[in-house]
Fold this sequence. Notes:
The chain is α/β, with parallel strands linked by helices. It has 6 helices and 7 strands; from the N terminus they run βββαβαααβαβαβ. It has a 5-stranded parallel beta sheet with strand order 6-5-4-3-7. A two-stranded antiparallel ribbon has the order 1-2. Strand 1 and strand 2 form a beta hairpin.
Amino acid sequence: MTxxxxxxxxTSGQSTVAETVxxxxxxxxxxxxxxxxxxxxxxxxxxxxxxxxxxxxEAMVFFTFxxxxxxxxxxxxxxxxxxxxxxxxxxxxxxxxxxPGMEAVASKMMKKQMEDLEIPPxxxxxxxxxxxxxxxxxxxxxxxxxxxxxxxxxxxxxxVLTVMDFYEKSAGSQIIFI
Length: 178
């Protein structure tokens, strides 16, 4: 942020300009909303939360709608890369992506690439985030909509929150929607 002020006129009659530059404040807290449950959309929020924790930034992850798949016990180990209608897969037009087995092939390829980069599977990533002190929350409305019970979620999930609770807990946070 820059602040500009005019000083007193000089003997020549012209004013001098004094400029004060204020350094940006470091991020103290992030609230990341994970709304998609495909394998390729699971990692961005997890990586960002992990990076925040590694930098000493408080991190909160709020799982809503299909993002609940990332923290649902029966689904977390079976996330797939969406091949139909995924604009990020130019190598695979929708017609080819819709063929039987293509989603499994794309998912297997991504899991192999993640393994080669030593990036943990989603379940392990959730455990790491919890151990690192990240706050993990499920969305009450999405839980009700999908008829999920708290017992169906991974044990690392801290609580099920309403949207209002999310905003209260996010006070002062940078909010990131994925």
